[in-house]
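FIELD: query
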Amino acid sequence: MILSRAKPAINGDKKDGKEKSGSANKKQVPKTEEFLAKRDYTGAMAVLEFNRHSGKGGEDVDMWLGYCAFHMGDYKRAMLEYEALTHSKSPPKSVWINLACCYFYLGMYSDSEKICDKAEKTRLKTRLLFHLAHKFGDEKKLMQYHQELEDVIEDQLSLASIHYLRSHYQEAIDIYKRILLDNREYLALNVYVALCYYKLDYYDVSQEVLAVYLQHFPDSAIAINLKACNHFRLYNGKAAEQELKSLQDQATSSFTFGKDLIKHNLVVFRNGEGALQILPPLVDVIPEARLNLVIYYLRQDDVNEAYALIKDLEPTVPQEYILKGVVNAAVGQENGSREHLKIAQQYFQLVGGSASECDTIPGRQCMAACFFLLKQFDDVLLYLNSIKSYYYNDDVFNFDYGQAKAAVGNYQEAEEIFLNITNEKLKIDYAYLSWLARCFIMNSKARLAWELYLKMETSGESFSLLQLIANDCYKMGQFYYAAKAFDMLERLDPNPEYWEGKRGAAVGLFQMIIAGREDRQALADIIQILRNTSNPQVEHIVKVMKKWAKDNRVPV
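FIELD: result
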C-alpha cells in the first residue's frame, strides 16, 4: 500500500513531459488535463480512447493511456500500452522506466530489473532499483542505492517506504512528519503516518491523523480501508465492515483501486467467512493473505495445511515469527514431535526477548508460551499476570491461564478460571476436561469430576480421563469415586493393577466410614463394586465389611 502511494516521481516525470509538449498536447486531447486535475483517470481514459479511435492517436495518447491506467491501479493495462510503445521505431525515452515500474507493481521483479538497464539514468530509476534491491534481499545494493538518494521529497518518500517495509515504522514517521512541516498541502502523507501508527498498535492516534485526510477526500479507498482496520482493532468486525460498506456503495473508480485488499479484509472482519474462496489467489499478492489463511486453517484444526503454507516462509516481522511458532507448536503437540516444539519455543523466545517487543502484549504472550513449552509455569504466570486485565473474558487466554495456575498447584483459582470459559469447542477438548477434573478432585469435588466422565462418549480420551480420576481421587483420599473409577477401568481392561487400585480404594473408604468421615450408606455401594470382580480376595473383604455393618446396624 505504501509503495503504490509513494510514486510522485512518475507524476513528476510525466508532468515534465506534458509541460514540454505544451500546446501540442492540448490540441490533441483538449479535455484530458481537466480530468487529470480532478484525479478522474476513468474520464481521462475515455477521452484518450475516443481520440485514439477517431484517428487522433499517437505516441502521446498512448503514453497518457498508460499513465492513467497505472494511476487507476490497472498495471497490466498500463504494461500493455508501454510494451506496445517499445516496439515503435523510436520509442519515447521515458517508456522504459515506466514499463519497469509496471513490472515492479505486477511483482515481475526480474523483468523490471532487466528493463531498467535500458532506461536512462534518472532519480526515478535509482528509486526503483532501491526498491528492487529490497525485494531481492540484496543488502549491499540496498545500501548502494540508499547512498545515491538525495534530499528531495521523492527520494525521501522512497526511503520512508523502505523503512516501512522493513518494519522501521518510527523512522518512516519521522521522515513523513519532516516533509509535512514544510509541505502541509501534501495531505496524503497523513495516510502514511496513520498507517505507521496502525502498525505500531496506536489505533486511536492512527484514527486522529487519518481524519485530516478523510475530511478532504472522504471517498479514498485506502483511507477508508485503514479506518475500517482501526475500527476492527478498537471495536469489532461488524464496526469495521460497516466502514467498508460505504466504500462498496459508492462503487467509484477509487474503489477499483485496492479491491483485492478490501476483499481480503472483509474475510478477516467476518472471522474467516469465505476464506477458502478469497485468500488462496491473494497469497503472495497481499502479504497478510498467507498469514490469515494459515490462521483460518488453524481455527479449522487443519494443522497440516497450515504448516504446508508457512513452512517455507522466512519470517521478517514479529507477526510472522509468532505464527510460525504457533504452527510449529501445534504440529509438535499433534505429532508428539520434540523438534517442532523446540523450534516453536525458539521463535517465541526470539520475539518475547527482542527489545522492540519485550514490553508489548504479544511479546509477553510469546514469553509465556516459551516458558509454557519449557514447563516453567511460575515464569508463565509472571507474564500472564502482567496482561490478564486485557483478556478478562478471552476464553483462549483463560484456558492457558487456568492450566498454568493448576500446574503450580493453585487449583481453587484454576477451577474458577476454567468454569468462566464459554467456548464450546474448548469445553470438549481433552486438555480442558482433564485439567478441570483434576481441579475438582484437588478441591474435594470428586463427584463433579465423575460427572465430567459420565458425559463423555467411550473413547481413548474417556479412558485416559478415567485413569486420571481413579489415581487422583485415590491420592486425595476420595476413595468412593476412586473405587468407582477403578471398577470401570477393570471392566474395560481386566488389568490386575486396576483390581489392586479398587481393593485399596474400597478398604480406604471402609476405614473412613468406621472413622465417621464418610457416609455409612456408601458401604452397600462399595460391596457391590467389589463383587463386580471375580477374585478370591473379594469374599474375605466383603465378609469383614458385612460383619461391621451388622454390628453397627448399617443396612447393606
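FIELD: remark
The first helix runs from residue 2 to 5.
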